[in-house]
């Protein structure tokens, strides 16, 4: 799974190390049942997503990782994974899905992808990752539980 993220070219070495430790923690059962991984394989792994709930908010989830191997860009694997995550979370009663990414120019394609998938830029924290590298947070309201009297 880490190879997909590495091949995308969007993750720094320290981020890939952190990803490897998260993957290891998942397979060792340390993350809990509410942390989810989806791998698209056709026939070999080509895309992956990792999402989990926000610890201190009701019905809010984070899509922490979405990566598509460059050999499979533009054929719909990323959008299919996003739609799968959204459907899963909607069925579970989630209210909001958040996605964060970098504000650097090389992430413009990533930000445009999230816009195409119906996400709105909700926040931008300047110089978050490093000087000149903003954190951009995207938000989408999901079909959460009914609100009523």
Description:
With 149 residues, the protein is an alpha+beta fold. The protein has a single domain, classed as Gcn5-related N-acetyltransferase (GNAT) (Aminopeptidase). The protein contains 4 helices and 6 strands. It has helices spanning 2-8, 13-27, 77-91, 108-116, and strands spanning 36-41, 45-53, 60-68, 96-102, 120-130, 133-141. It has a 6-stranded mixed β-sheet. The protein starts with a helix and ends in an 8-residue tail after the last strand. The model has no long low-confidence stretch (mean pLDDT 89).
Radius of gyration: 15 Å
Q: How many domains make up the coordinates?
A: 1
Mean pLDDT: 89
Element order: H for helix, E for strand: HHEEEHEHEE
| Biggest pleated sheet | 6 strands, mixed
Query: What structural class do the secondary elements suggest?
Result: alpha+beta
Q: Tell me, briefly, the overall form.
A: globular
CATH topology: Aminopeptidase
Strand-residue proportion:
25-35%
Helix fraction bin? 25-40%
Strand neighbour order, sheet with most strands? 1-2-3-4-6-5
**Strands, total number:** 6
Unreliable spans are none
Could you name the CATH homologous superfamily?
A: Gcn5-related N-acetyltransferase (GNAT)
Give the CATH architecture. 3-Layer(aba) Sandwich
Counting H and I runs of at least 4 residues, what is the number of helices?
A: 4
Instruction: Please report the distance between the alpha carbons of the first and last residues.
Output: 45 Å
What's the CATH first level?
Answer: Alpha Beta
Which keywords apply here?
149 residues; alpha+beta; Aminopeptidase; 4 helices; 34% strand
């Amino acid at each position: 799974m880490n190879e997909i993220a590495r091949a995308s070219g969007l993750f720094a070495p320290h981020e890939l190390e952190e990803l490897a430790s998260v993957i290891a923690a998942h397979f060792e059962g340390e993350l809990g049942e509410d942390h989810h991984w989806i791998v698209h394989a056709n026939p070999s792994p080509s895309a992956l997503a990792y999402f989990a709930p926000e610890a201190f908010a009701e019905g809010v989830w984070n899509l922490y990782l979405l990566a598509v191997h460059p050999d499979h860009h533009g054929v719909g694997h990323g959008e299919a994974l996003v739609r799968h995550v959204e459907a899963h979370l909607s069925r579970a009663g989630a209210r909001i899905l958040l996605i964060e990414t970098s504000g650097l120019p090389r992430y413009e394609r990533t930000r445009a992808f999230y816009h195409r998938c119906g996400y709105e830029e909700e926040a931008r924290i300047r110089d978050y990752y490093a000087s000149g590298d903003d954190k951009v947070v995207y938000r989408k309201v999901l079909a959460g539980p009914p609100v009523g009297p």
